[in-house]
């Protein structure tokens, strides 16, 4: 990995601090480097302002002159009532170089930010960065497809069950896996369960980790009926195009909701927590329309595997050629 790629990956890791509080703006990370040392850094603040570049440049002050700015997303080129365009701030900062990990698909910027920085006499490069793309995945999907990125979480026994035959499901996995699930909730704008799960379990769906309670996502239920106070309703999976401002949707249960989203081809990522137990109970999924075993292959690629106490987490991303 080149030096530039490493700094962009570091900026992408920094951007995670802004998610999901930065909504409706994307969580962006920025790092200022001078003579091989970090002199300032920034990430998108709660509510979307100030932007990452503005935070880093303000922190650096005059020291920004001659530095290289690494930023995960192309600096915005449009002014708004909430603040100036980042491309203008960067152009006036005195930095010597700008390296961008991902171009902005927003038509108000879409290359114009990079052009404006270059017109100010600053060397500016777009170095496509998988780390930056991954850190902005929900924003990019929202801009390109008009819907949130959907992560489906399944907590399973070894035989693929999510509950006993009598419906008991607390707890399939252990404390470490449940804590990891809460950390994943904290990265989502919204969390969804099916109507049956809501009625039977009355889940809180909040984030119960120290210091992260304020990152509890909006609660949604997949139903054509009424929702309790404090909940939002989604009549069917395709309606996620109307979830205003939601870039990251976490689908947590149960089997009918999971099956419905898979059948609609709307799952981008799978989080499978697998416990070393045999249950012989209720299966995790129903029929989601697979016509043949041949059609099941090549749909998913594993991107991560880790041990969480006695449980195992496997993360799968939908293959680019797959509608899921």
Automatic annotation (TrEMBL):
Keywords: Hydrolase, Metal-binding, Multifunctional enzyme, NADP, Oxidoreductase, Riboflavin biosynthesis, Zinc. The keyword Metal-binding applies. The active site is at residue 53. Residues 2-116 form the CMP/dCMP-type deaminase domain. CDD domains: Riboflavin_deaminase-reductase. Signal peptide: none annotated. Substrate binds at residues 185, 205, 208, 252. One of its GO terms (molecular function) is diaminohydroxyphosphoribosylaminopyrimidine deaminase activity. It catalyses: 5-amino-6-(5-phospho-D-ribitylamino)uracil + NADP(+) = 5-amino-6-(5-phospho-D-ribosylamino)uracil + NADPH + H(+); 2,5-diamino-6-hydroxy-4-(5-phosphoribosylamino)-pyrimidine + H2O + H(+) = 5-amino-6-(5-phospho-D-ribosylamino)uracil + NH4(+). One of its GO terms (biological process) is riboflavin biosynthetic process. The keyword NADP applies. Pathway: Cofactor biosynthesis; riboflavin biosynthesis; 5-amino-6-(D-ribitylamino)uracil from GTP: step 2/4; Cofactor biosynthesis; riboflavin biosynthesis; 5-amino-6-(D-ribitylamino)uracil from GTP: step 3/4. It holds the Pfam family dCMP_cyt_deam_1. Zn(2+) binds at residues 51, 76, 86. Its EC number is 3.5.4.26, 1.1.1.193. Transmembrane segments: none annotated. It comes from the Bacteria. Its cofactor is Zn(2+). InterPro entries: CMP_dCMP_dom, Cytidine_deaminase-like, DHFR-like_dom_sf, Eubact_RibD, RibDG_C, Riboflavin_Biosynth_HTPR. Binds 1 zinc ion. Converts 2,5-diamino-6-(ribosylamino)-4(3h)-pyrimidinone 5'-phosphate into 5-amino-6-(ribosylamino)-2,4(1h,3h)-pyrimidinedione 5'-phosphate. In the N-terminal section; belongs to the cytidine and deoxycytidylate deaminase family. In the C-terminal section; belongs to the HTP reductase family. This is Riboflavin biosynthesis protein RibD.
């Amino acid at each position: 990995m080149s030096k530039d790629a490493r700094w962009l990956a570091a900026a992408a890791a920094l951007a995670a601090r802004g998610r999901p509080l930065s909504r409706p703006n994307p969580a962006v990370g920025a790092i200022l480097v001078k003579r091989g040392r970090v002199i300032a850094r920034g990430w998108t603040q709660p509510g979307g302002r100030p932007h990452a570049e503005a935070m880093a440049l303000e922190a650096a002050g005059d020291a920004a002159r001659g530095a290289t700015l690494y930023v995960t997303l192309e600096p915005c080129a449009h002014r708004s009532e909430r603040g100036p365009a980042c491309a203008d701030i960067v152009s006036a900062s005195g930095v010597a170089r700008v390296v961008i990990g991902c171009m902005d698909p927003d038509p108000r910027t879409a290359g114009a930010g990079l052009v404006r920085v270059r017109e100010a006499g600053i060397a500016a490069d777009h170095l496509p960065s998988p780390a930056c793309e991954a850190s902005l995945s929900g924003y990019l999907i929202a801009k390109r497809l008009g819907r949130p990125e959907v992560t489906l979480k399944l907590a399973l026994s070894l035989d693929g069950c999510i509950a006993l035959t009598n419906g008991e499901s607390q707890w399939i996995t252990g404390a470490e896996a449940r804590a990891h699930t809460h950390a994943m909730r904290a990265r989502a704008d919204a969390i969804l369960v099916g109507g049956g799960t809501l009625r039977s379990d009355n889940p809180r769906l909040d984030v119960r980790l120290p210091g992260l309670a304020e990152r509890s996502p909006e609660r949604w239920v997949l139903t054509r009926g009424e929702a309790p106070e404090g909940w939002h309703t989604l009549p069917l999976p395709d309606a996620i195009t109307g979830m205003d401002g939601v870039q990251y949707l976490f689908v947590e249960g149960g089997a009918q909701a999971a099956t419905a989203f898979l059948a609609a081809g709307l799952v981008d990522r799978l989080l499978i927590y697998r416990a070393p137990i045999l249950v012989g109970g209720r299966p995790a999924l129903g029929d989601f329309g697979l016509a043949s075993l041949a059609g099941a292959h090549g749909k998913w690629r594993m991107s991560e595997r880790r041990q969480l106490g006695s449980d195992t987490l496997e993360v799968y991303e939908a293959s680019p050629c797959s509608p899921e």
